Model the fold of this input.
Amino acid sequence: MTAISRRRTTAVGVAAAVALGVIAVPAHARGDRGAPPSLPRVPASVETPSLFDDEAGGNANADDPAIWRDAEDPDRSLVIATAKEGGLRVYDLDGRQVQSLPAPPPPREGDAPGRFNNVDLITGLRFPDGPHDVAVVSDRGRDQLRVYRIDARRTGAPLVDVTDESAAPLVFSTGPDEVAGQRTAYGLAAYTDRRSGRSFAVTSRRHETALALAELLPTAQGKVGYRTVRTTSLPAAFRLPDGRTWTPCGEPGELPQVEGMVIDPATGDLYAGQEDVGIWKLDADLRSPARLIEKVRSFGVPGTWNQQTEECDAGADPGYGGRHLSADVEGLTIWRDPEHPRRGGYLLASSQGDDTFAVFDRERGDRYVRGFRVTAGGGAAAPDGSQECDGAAATSAPLGRRFPHGLLVVQDGANTARTTGPDGEARTDTDFKFVDLGRLRRTVGL
Done:
């Protein structure tokens, strides 16, 4: 049988799979229908240094970026990105590393070390001494949030850890023993509520469908703690039009998780990508019902977990999926049209399963408009493209001479290997690609 997707989700038991009529089918009939044969190709213009997920590389693995704009000097703007166990990396607009911050060590012997998964920014977090921009990070290894103040005057080390350790509780776990299971803080999106001026972070839980809303709490000492305000959960099972119930297939005991998320602070809309399901839309305060606005192609495809291959064996596609996203749906980001800044702009989503990106028009009910690929630039020394993309971030604000029309940053999960290990094997190589947003807009036709 064929694997249902390149990532793992939640198991459908063997008996249930038989009841659902699981059979071996070719790839073109099992959820890959509608995969675009040809899409506009937008070259990357900058790439960051390679990160290597091995001991020699500090177990660093590129994941999620955020773009910080220096309002006083846009040429000095920064890209702040997670490297999982490798902590945080800070890059300038030429892709050069400015700063590396380690993830925290294990709290006890035998515990997991810090593992930074996703990052987002709060502009003007209200401290007692005035507003400061901060980066908020989900620490998957320790089930916490960490907060870093951004100070552009510190040119060699612009980020400073201001996490209040006395007020940084576990986000989802009840104690360190539960943290060891690593069903911990995973995806993250942050925003400031326009009415109250209070700032929040929404996090998702690894291998679960839960979302948590945490309020960020600056202290008089210049630190930041947080408290959980409320939680909610997205569905793990879905009623199909033919009356059957479908659960995305994956490793036993793992539910269909959310990672990619983005919040529009102007509207309070939260978009959450449930990896093997699709994109949900709900209020960022987690009070509203969630609406599934776009499904992945394999939505509704039954499957069984194969212990030998550690993949899902797919059944026949009943035809209930979407047309534009190939699981996993990953990095989500909002791009506002600079000519119409008050409009909703576009939602961009990483379609990880086919190495493409989908664009949805928020002014037209989040309708799909176009897709594109991030490809290699011209010339032997040019960056390669982006494959298996996890995180993405965009801004249409001008970023100085380098990116006067804005910037899109995407993770590359399969960077072209440039080095080998001691035995001559290729090392796992990831990085981030920078795409000129003006060129993307012209190429894609937006």
